[in-house]
Amino acid sequence: MFARTALQTQKYSFSQPLKTSVRYIRTFKQEDQPRLRINSVVPNFEADTTLGKINFHDYLGDSWGVFFSHPADFTPVCTTELGAFSKLKPEFDKRNVKLVGLSVEGVESHKKWIKDIEEVSKLKNFSFPVIADESKEVAFLYDMVDEEGFKNLGKGPVATIRSVFVIDPSKKLRISFTYPPSVGRNTSEVLRVIDALQKTDSKGVVTPIDWQEGQDVIIPPSLSDAEAKKKFGKFKTVKPYLRYTKA
Predict the structure, then answer these.
(1) pTM for this prediction
(2) Would you tell me which of 73, 94, 126, 142 could form a disulfide with 113, CB atoms 3.0–4.6 Å apart?
C-alpha cells in the first residue's frame, strides 16, 4: 500500500515515493524518523484513500496543501472537524489549496464514517481524500503521535494526534500545528495563515499579530526607507524597525 520507507533503509530521498511491503516487519526507530522543519521538503508516499490510491506529491501538484490527521474514525471531535473543513473547501479552492485527511483506520471504515460526517454537518458531498494509515507508516513519517503513542508504534493500537501541515507548491513545509487528541482545531486560523503566507510570498512583506486579509502589513527591516518607498510608496513609521504599509 505504501512506498518504501526509512524503516527499511537509511539511504532514501523524500522527493521519491516511499513504499513498504506488508510482509516487512516494521520497526519504528526514532533515528530513522525524518525531521520536519520549516522549509524542508515533506516526505512523499503512496497510500490508499477514500478517493483511490494517491502519490502524495503528485496529488498536490502545483497546489498548496493542508494535510491533517485524526486519532481514529467515528470519534466526536474529528467528525466535527472533517465536516467543518469540507464545508470550507470552496475557500481553500479559492486559495489553490488541496485538503488531505488521515486516520489510522481502513478505507471502508473511512467511507462509512464519511456518511456520518455528511449527516452531522449537513453536507451533500464530502469531496477530499482521507488516507487509510492502518500500518502507521505515514503517522511515523510525519510524527503524528504523542510520546506514548510513539512507544507503542508497531506493538498495538495507536491514536494519531491532531497534526496540521501547510505545504507550499514546492512541497516545502511552511507551517505546522500540533494539538492533543482532546482539543479541536480552528479552521479560521488555518485559512488565516495561508492568506498570510501567500501574501508575504507575493509582496515581500511580513504580517503582524492577528493579521487578517485587507489589513496593513509590515515592511521587513532588511529594506532601507529609500528601498521601502520605491517598492511600496507610502508607509507609516512607528519605530525605525517597525513600518506599516498597505499590501
Answers:
(1) 0.86
(2) 73
